[in-house]
Amino acid sequence: MAQRQRKPKLAVWKFASCDGCQLSLLDCEDELLALGAAVEIAYFPEATRAVVKGPYDLSIVEGSVTTAHDAERIGEVRRQSKKLITIGACATAGGIQALRNFADVKEFVSIVYASPQYIETLASSTPIAEHVPVDFELRGCPIDKRQLLEVIAAFLQGRKPNTPAHSVCVECKRRGNVCVTVAKGTPCLGPVTHAGCGALCPSFDRGCYGCFGPMETPNPASLSRQMSVLGLSEGTIARLYRSFNAGAEPFRKEGGRHGA
Amino acid sequence: MARRTVQVDYLARVEGEGGLHLTLDGGEVKQVELRIFEPPRFFEALLRGRSFAEAPDITSRICGICPVAYQMSAVNAMEDALGIAVDGPIRALRRLLYCGEWIESHALHIYMLHAPDFLGYESAIAMAGDHAELVTRGLKLKKIGNEIMRVVGGRETHPINVRVGGFYKAPSRRDLNGLVESLKWALQAALETVAWVADFEFPDCERDYEFVALRHLEEYPIADGRIVSNRGLDIAVGDYEGHFEEIHVPHSHALHSRIKGRGNYLAGPMARYSLNYDRLTPTAQEAARAAGLGPICRNPYRSIVVRAVEVAYACEEGCG
């Protein structure tokens, strides 16, 4: 018998974020102990005080870069990681905190903090891939935990993750949902939004608000025309794109076209 | 005796990010600094100019571990501003959603964050090596909390179903009925959890807290009631700013909140429990008594027992 292989070392890192995406890993209640047996959880402060030194076989990164210190730290994480995947809208698009990118961050600081001089922050919130090479980006605000397991399994097995890049519309069709825009005139970002949630919002009779970010090759200009036909103001259309994935290029551009 | 400092740069198994600096002189703690270095994200600033309807979805992103707390606070604030009163079955469903979060978040806290400290493990996963049944029970309990959030809210983290005025879609009777059996099991598991954590070794440490929590006329409070304390505070939620002040300290991004003219106070499960023991169900009260908790708990180490009692309460309310 060959000697038993060393378990792959998994690390989970947090940048500016809400913790929700890394919590998705702990939300895998039925799979967590099996995962703990399959990998060595080498760094994951939300779950363990154990700190095993790098290099790591797989690093999972949550959050965006919003401080000079974090811009340096992500470089160190990359150096210690054989594979690096980002999870969630913060890490892949800058998150909701990227709304500062369209405003004056000093003014933002002054709204929240009585002593702005104590706060060190960058003028922008940027995705991890703007700082270091990323091996895979998993979408969602939050990510879907089944997709997270698929991505981890794929990396451990050395194959490509199966996470389709088509639109939420396709997921609606699969579920047999009636289109909320066509039937009820509800604004919906489904036609331009990356699949992964299983068409959650339309299944709850509301329009998709784009938390998985842009699909592959979206056509937001066409969708915006439809939103105008529904009677949405320019400002409302702009706000549709300026939320959790405001920093993703197709949404950033389309929001800008509508005056935001 | 010598002055020394204890410095923990990154606290493990907590919700969020922080470090702790202690300064000791002889045997005495001189200074404690909890440094919340989590980078600021400026929600108060970025919410300006948004539609009231977006507030629950945006504020949810403050914390992925307790999104319902933020979402529900935002929805209550918007409804208050619009003069909308939400009552009856919609209010009951919102309490159920919140119970789901309590069960999930408390089970996470008890089993995965806190218990490993008492039993000497680095993590719940390591603890499962010796106590597989216990950790499995905790994970199952946590999963049932998540199931409630999925049925009522659409998903566990950042639920999508809450809207100003109610919900986007009512959950089906079938899905709700499906939760009852799970919750009956969860109530038993929660009572076993109370008994389990009650046996941990707790340092003898009683603090003289001013507790602050909500207090409701009839219910164990979740999101409604007056803000009360054990030192005579009794105000409407809208009068909060008249009685509390938030202070920005240099070492932390988390603002420090104090009662004006009086100082520090304790909020959270221990305060809620100590101010509302009489509003718990008889089952939860009995579990607390059997666990050696009085109607008031001043020992911070025992907060794990208080959380377990609240899980039992939430499971029982969810069943009913």
Features:
heterodimer; A: 260 residues; alpha/beta; 2 domains; five-stranded parallel beta sheet; 12 helices; 5 strands; 10% strand; B: 320 residues; alpha+beta; Cytochrome-c3 Hydrogenase, chain B; 3 domains; three-stranded antiparallel beta sheet; 11 helices; 47% helix; 13% strand; globular
Quick synopsis:
With 260 residues, chain A is an alpha/beta fold. Helix content of chain A is 37%, strand content 10%.
CATH topology of the largest domain in chain B: Cytochrome-c3 Hydrogenase, chain B
Question: Rough shape of chain A?
Answer: globular
CATH-defined superfamily of the largest domain in chain B: Cytochrome-c3 Hydrogenase, chain B
Low-confidence segments of chain B, given as residue ranges, are: none
Please describe the biggest sheet of chain B, giving its number of strands, its sense, and whether it closes into a barrel.
3 strands, antiparallel
Number of helices of chain B: 11
Q: Helicity level of chain A, as a percent range? A: 25-40%
What's the SSE pattern of chain A? Answer: EHHEEHEHHEHHHHHHH
Q: Write down the Rg of chain B.
A: 20 Å
Q: State the fourth-level CATH superfamily of the largest domain in chain A.
A: NADH:ubiquinone oxidoreductase-like, 20kDa subunit
The two chains with the largest interface, and their residue counts, are: A-B, 62 and 62 residues
Q: Report the β-strand fraction of chain B as a percent range.
A: 5-15%
- SS summary, helix count of chain A: 12
Pairing-aware structural class of the strands and helices of chain B?
alpha+beta
Average predicted local confidence, pLDDT of chain A? 96
In angstroms, what is the radius of gyration of chain A?
A: 20 Å
Tell me about this structure.
The complex is a heterodimer of chains A (260) and B (320). With 260 residues, chain A is an alpha/beta fold. In chain A, 37% of the residues lie in helices and 10% in strands. In chain A, strands 2-1-3-4-5 form a five-stranded parallel beta sheet, with helices on both faces. In chain A, β3 (56-62), α3 and β4 (81-87) form a beta-alpha-beta unit. In chain A, α11 runs antiparallel to α12 (249-257). The termini of chain A are far apart. The model of chain A has no long low-confidence stretch (mean pLDDT 96). Chain B has 320 residues and is an alpha+beta fold. Chain B has three domains: 3-35, no CATH class; 43-198, Cytochrome-c3 Hydrogenase, chain B; 212-319, no CATH class. Chain B is built from eleven helices and ten strands. In chain B, β9 and β10 (256-259) form a beta hairpin.
